[in-house]
């Protein structure tokens, strides 16, 4: 769970569970201002997590986040504050009709990633960078903010 001025709702009513378990953290930018949404600083997928650990100022909370991600078998791909500011935390994994996993991210986010990060992410999904400069400049969001996740049950054939 993430504490912010406008905390995101958790699917399936997990908010009370997260609150009671203590799996909560605060995140801040380089000036110490609270980050308004987890989409700014992290992207969670089924097998990996892109996260700006520097944005979690409390060491205990940061360690808890790392422990939770590790226990849920997610490869942690850390990003820097500069990469976070280039929207590298604002990406989304989607699955095409063929079953191929695609990691949708902005061109700016892609260009901020290092070679090792690109290689690690490519092991999980095909990266699909899209030029979103106007959206990022004027709207304050990026790829993930423009998309919604829909988890449909598998169709019987």
Secondary-structure map with pairings?
Blueprint: E1 2-3, H1 15-21, E2 25-26, H2 38-41, E3 42-44, E4 48-51, H3 59-71, E5 75-78, H4 81-85, E6 92-95, E7 101-106, H5 107-112, H6 115-122, E8 126-130, H7 133-139
Parallel strand pairs: 1-2, 4-5, 7-8
Antiparallel strand pairs: 3-4, 6-7
Please summarize what this structure is.
This protein has 157 residues and is α/β, with parallel strands linked by helices. Helices cover 32% and strands 19% of the residues.
Task: Report on the architecture of this protein.
Helix content is 32%, strand content 19%. With 157 residues, the chain is an alpha/beta fold. The protein has one domain (2-146). The strands form three sheets. The protein has a three-stranded mixed β-sheet with strand order 3-4-5, sandwiched between helices. It has a three-stranded mixed β-sheet with strand order 6-7-8. A two-stranded parallel ribbon has the order 1-2. It is globular, with a radius of gyration of 16 Å. The protein starts with a strand and ends in an 18-residue tail after the last helix.
């Amino acid at each position: 769970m993430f504490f912010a001025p406008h905390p995101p709702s958790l699917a399936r009513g997990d908010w009370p569970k997260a609150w009671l378990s203590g799996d909560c953290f605060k995140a801040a930018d380089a000036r110490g201002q609270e980050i308004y949404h987890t989409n700014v600083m992290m992207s969670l997928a089924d097998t990996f997590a892109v996260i700006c650990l520097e944005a979690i100022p409390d060491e205990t909370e940061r360690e808890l986040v790392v422990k939770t991600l590790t226990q849920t078998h997610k490869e942690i791909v850390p990003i820097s504050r500069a990469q976070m500011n280039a929207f590298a935390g604002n990406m989304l994994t989607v699955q095409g009709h063929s079953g191929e996993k695609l990691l949708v991210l902005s061109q700016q986010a892609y260009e901020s990633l290092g070679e090792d990060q690109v290689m690690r992410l490519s092991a999980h999904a095909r990266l699909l960078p899209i030029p979103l400069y106007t959206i990022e400049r004027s709207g304050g969001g990026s790829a993930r903010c423009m998309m919604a996740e829909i988890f449909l049950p598998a169709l019987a054939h």
